[in-house]
């Protein structure tokens, strides 16, 4: 079929040549605030759990079951949220999942009984993980290729502040009364306030374009470019042209066929290797991350340290999270993303193994701090990298499968840690953690595609 060059430019070409504008900064802050409350809410139950145990007279086993419901909900949310976003659109899906997790977080505050709390935590977890998958895809699609990694880092940096802020909210709210723990969940529901600023977000023009809705894509791009010109003057030229079939160029009202993402597409020969690679990386990093962070206080106590010492040292280690995310914002777009991921995973593996090999207080705090810091350097890198591995019409579905199966794996992770500790001792747990991070480095190095600065398909 003969083709002609027409005036239309792709969304990717028009977006990737833009400077960072006020539009981008608005997107950054809105998504970052959503992540602020998402990460706060994700950790809210950890802060509220001791008071819940006392209020209802629950056992540790019952609390662990509620946590497992949350992670199962996160699996369901990530998988369904990715599909939902590929069908409905990034902006609508982001706002609806934010409203979802906020509403069920508020219900956590009102629920009576452990069964009800298990159900509301499952549904909250579904909203939290769906929003996470959609949010990281939205940033990847809306920011210029050369800077999207850095802005994933900035989103995570701001979002991570939600964890210590929520800890302080819990510190002052819980002692108010026996029901004070309910206020922690009310705090977690405040992410719904972001909906007041929904009109400042644009739908992803890449998503419109993938569905053949070219008029809608151009309208969004025209608005963004108009605001960019008002801020910076004349913009760089768009270098990429699109070749369309001659008969389509003669009939401008016709549109290319729509592409609806299907999970079966992820198993097609063209995408199966990347799907397997992403899923394996998310499973290994989730087991490595939670194998360390969720068990450090318990294992220190079990190995003879006092509870006070354990909690004090664990708290000191978590301080590394925010500078770790800041480091990601600095390095993400400077080097090829897959190699940055591999190097950071190796650093986490080494620090985790060294942590488990020592019983000196200074070394425990230093290596624990480094694990916490590099783990949060790693997270934004993977958040940026995962959506880059899939084309637009299945980008969120692919990201959701990786993120969701990774969360599902953590249902079994605690059983592995308990088995290793009971049969092979304290050091074996950290050898296992190190092995998971080494697997991440090996898989990404061997099979990960190059993505830095490249135009998203």
What key phrases describe this protein's structure?
457 residues, Growth Hormone, Chain: A, 73% helix, 1% strand
Explain what you see.
With 457 residues, the protein is mostly helical. The chain has two domains: 14-206, Growth Hormone, Chain: A, CATH 1.20.1250.20; 263-447, Growth Hormone, Chain: A (Up-down Bundle). It is built from 20 helices and two strands. Strands 1-2 form a two-stranded antiparallel ribbon. The longest helix is centred in the N-terminal third of the chain and has 35 residues, at 22-56. It is globular. 49% of the residues are buried. Residues 1-7 and 241-258 have low confidence and may be disordered.
Q: Judging by the overall fold, what is the CATH architecture of the largest domain?
A: Up-down Bundle
The tally of helices reads: 20
Q: Which fold does the CATH topology of the largest domain refer to?
A: Growth Hormone, Chain: A
What's the end-to-end separation, in Å?
Answer: 23 Å
Number of strands: 2
Query: What is the name of the CATH class of the largest domain?
Result: Mainly Alpha
Q: CATH homologous superfamily of the largest domain - what is it? A: MFS general substrate transporter like domains
């Amino acid at each position: 079929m003969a083709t002609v060059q027409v005036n239309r430019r792709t969304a990717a070409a028009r977006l990737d040549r833009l400077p960072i504008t006020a539009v981008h900064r608005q997107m950054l802050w809105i998504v970052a605030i959503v992540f602020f409350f998402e990460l706060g809410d994700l950790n809210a139950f950890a802060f509220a759990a001791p008071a819940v145990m006392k209020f209802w007279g629950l056992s540790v086993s019952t609390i662990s079951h509620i946590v497992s419901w949350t992670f199962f909900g996160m699996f369901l949310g990530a998988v369904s949220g990715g599909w939902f976003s590929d069908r409905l659109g990034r902006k609508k899906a982001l706002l609806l999942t934010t409203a979802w997790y906020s509403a069920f977080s508020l219900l956590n505050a009102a629920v009576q009984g452990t069964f009800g709390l298990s159900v509301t935590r499952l549904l909250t977890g579904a909203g939290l993980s769906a929003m996470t998958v959609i949010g990281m895809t939205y940033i990847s699609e809306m920011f210029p290729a050369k800077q999207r990694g850095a802005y994933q880092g900035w989103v995570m940096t701001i979002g991570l502040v939600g964890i210590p802020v929520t800890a302080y909210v819990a510190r002052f709210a819980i002692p108010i009364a026996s029901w004070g723990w309910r206020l922690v969940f009310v705090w977690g529901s405040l992410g719904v306030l972001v909906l007041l600023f929904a009109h400042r977000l644009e739908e992803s023009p890449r998503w419109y374009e993938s569905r053949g809705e070219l008029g809608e894509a151009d309208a969004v791009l025209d608005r963004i470019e108009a605001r960019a010109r008002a801020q910076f003057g004349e913009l760089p030229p768009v270098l990429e042209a699109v070749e369309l079939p001659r008969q389509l160029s003669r009939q401008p009202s016709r549109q290319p066929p729509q592409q609806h993402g299907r999970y079966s597409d992820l198993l097609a020969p063209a995408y199966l290797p990347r799907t397997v690679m992403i899923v394996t990386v998310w499973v290994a990093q989730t087991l490595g991350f939670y194998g360390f962070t969720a068990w450090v206080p318990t294992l220190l106590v079990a190995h003879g340290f006092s509870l006070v010492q354990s909690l004090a040292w664990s708290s000191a280690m978590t301080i590394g999270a925010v500078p770790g995310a800041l480091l990601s914002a600095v390095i993400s777009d400077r080097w090829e993303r897959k190699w940055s991921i591999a190097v950071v995973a190796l650093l986490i593996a080494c620090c985790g193994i060294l942590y488990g090999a020592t019983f000196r207080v200074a070394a425990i705090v230093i290596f624990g701090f480094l694990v916490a810091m590099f783990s949060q350097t790693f997270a934004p890198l993977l958040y940026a990298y995962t959506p880059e591995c899939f084309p637009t019409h299945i980008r969120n579905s692919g990201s959701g499968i990786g993120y969701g199966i990774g969360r599902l794996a953590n249902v079994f992770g605690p059983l592995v840690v308990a088995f290793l500790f009971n049969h092979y001792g304290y050091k074996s747990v950290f050898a296992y953690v190190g092995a998971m991070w080494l697997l991440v480095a090996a898989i990404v190095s061997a099979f990960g595609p190059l993505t830095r600065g490249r135009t998203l398909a």
